[in-house]
Design a protein that fits this description.
Number of domains: 2
CATH architecture of the largest domain: Orthogonal Bundle
Largest sheet: 3 strands, antiparallel
Order of helices and strands: HHHHHEEHHHHEEEHEEHHHH
CATH topology of the largest domain: hpI Integrase, Chain A
Helix content: 40-55%
CATH class of the largest domain: Mainly Alpha
Number of helices: 14
Shape: elongated
Amino acid sequence: MSYTKKDVQKFRYVAYYETKTEALKRLSEEQITPTSPRANITFRELYEEWKTTPAFTGISKQTQENYAAAYKHLAPLHNAKFNHIRTKDMQVIIDDLTALNPTSKTPQPLSRSTKTKVRILCGLLYKYAMQNDICNKNYACFIKLPKAEKTEKSIFTDLEIKRLESNVSIPYADTILILIYTGLRISELLELSRFGVDLKAMTITGGLKTDAGKNRTVPIHPKILPYIKKYYDDGCDRLITKSRETGDKNNKKIVSGVPITAKYYRKSIFAPIMEQLGIVGKTPHATRHTCATLLARAGADTNAIKMILGHSDYAFTADTYTHTDVNFLKEQMVKI
């Protein structure tokens, strides 16, 4: 019997083993679960490929930046074959995550929140790899995180809120009051379209992050209506924007309607206002805690608070609200 060139059997090397017994065992496993042709893809290559998918392109810019930062923390794995990575490889990196203390110049452990983001990224990459038959097991789900320390939730005091109300002439100080009286996250407010504001109905429709948070309806409290109307009347696509100079010194031009990132808001707007007003120990997220506290203190319905804040344990999206539901939320909001 003669063979043509195309009839020649081709061999593919799966792996090398020290004993025949081990090799035969692996060969039998190979018959059941064949090794992916892409088994040699590296962590870096997988990450870059995943970044082109809707799982990455369809999320907010802030979340994309969080994943990019988490990826940098995993630098020791970038050139490793993804199929060869195991739980202990990721665990060691997460356990040892530190940053240089700017004051003492000594390394200090990174927060549990940062470590959580690293684990989430690993889990998303394993999910993508399994969907594409690159691996068969999600080793990220076995990563252990340090126990969360119970900390007192920081909120704005009544005196600090009054101080903000007395200083709304400071650029963007009123946005902090909008955050306090809506419970919106920074990214939710900054990405809010002008067309998500209904001044007649006194509602805002927006939100991100969770299924319960997306496209939810938040009543506009009468106290912040003038501030929202001011930004609304600016006529920009996004409700909250900034202006910037372009061109050279001989031909300067002011461009308005420039989007504001969460990072810029924290560093260049929120922090300077806090310093100027002498308000210490507050982060932008404290506005959400303050909103929840004010509502609870005023006796607002528990489910209404969850709906307004978009808590993940109350899966109720804006498109399922009835007219009565929105009026109910308004009644609860004005209790503050």
